[in-house]
Amino acid sequence: MNKDYLDELKSLELYEEFYRLKCQKDSVIWSGFEKEPDKESFKEYVIKNLIENPKNHLFLLRDGSKNDVMGYCQFNEESDGVCEGRGSGLFKQYQGCGLASVMDTLLVEKAREYGMKYMYAWCSEKNIVSMRALIDAGFKKTEKTETRHMSVFNENHTFYMWEIYL
Predict the structure, then answer these.
(1) Which helix (H) or strand (E) holds 122?
(2) Paired residues of 96 in beta bridges
(3) Closest Cα partner for 105 from 68, 135, 80, 76?
(4) How distant is the alpha carbon of residue 1 from its chain centre?
(5) Hey, what domains does the chain have and what are their CATH numbers?
(6) Which residues of 147-165 are buried (b: 16+ CB within 10 A; e: fewer)?
(7) Element (H, E) at 75
(8) For 92-139, how does the pLDDT look when each residue is reduced to its tens digit (9 = 90+)?
(9) What pLDDT does residue 1 have?
(10) 85 CB-near residues (< 8 Å, 6+ apart)
């Protein structure tokens, strides 16, 4: 069996797959939105902020045997060796089988390859799956918190900062 791998999105070749991922209910909800993004506006955002910006790295998780896109994850370089994990998502048919942990672990490896020394990510205390994936990838929960209003739930969530030294 071939290993799953991350493929960096550097063009619009796989935009449709990424857009479908971002339109999934879980991706919309945990991104803090109430509805899926407008396709053309989102395409402009992807071009400007993810493809043309060399400090932002968007990866698609690919099935090593079939080469299918299964999910996405990303990190943004901030300063000398510091980056922020900026979200992830999986197609519904790939959820619940440990791939979030695989994807976060592969993302940490990619950050190391890019010369990052420290990575952090924010995660809602109510997003159990993402917290488990962060733990499995080696992240540690810090005491830093932010309160964010999650309009789709009509409630505030406490987000904890998680960190890993690479």
Answers:
(1) strand 118-124
(2) none
(3) 135
(4) 25
(5) 5-165 (3.40.630.30)
(6) eeebeeeeeebebbbbbbe
(7) strand 69-79
(8) 999 999 999 999 999 999 999 999 999 999 999 999 999 999 999 999
(9) 43
(10) 73, 74, 75, 104, 107, 119, 120, 121
Could you say which DSSP state residue 126 is in?
T
Chain-centre distance for alpha carbon 154? 23
Whether residue 155 has pLDDT greater than 80: yes
Length of the chain: 166
How far is it, in rounded angstroms, from Cα 66 to Cα 70? 10
Amino acid at 73: C
Q: SS3 helix, strand, coil % of the chain, rounded to 5?
A: 35, 35, 30
In this predicted model, what pLDDT tens digit does every residue of 26-70 receive, in sequence order? 888 888 788 899 999 999 999 998 889 999 999 999 998 888 999
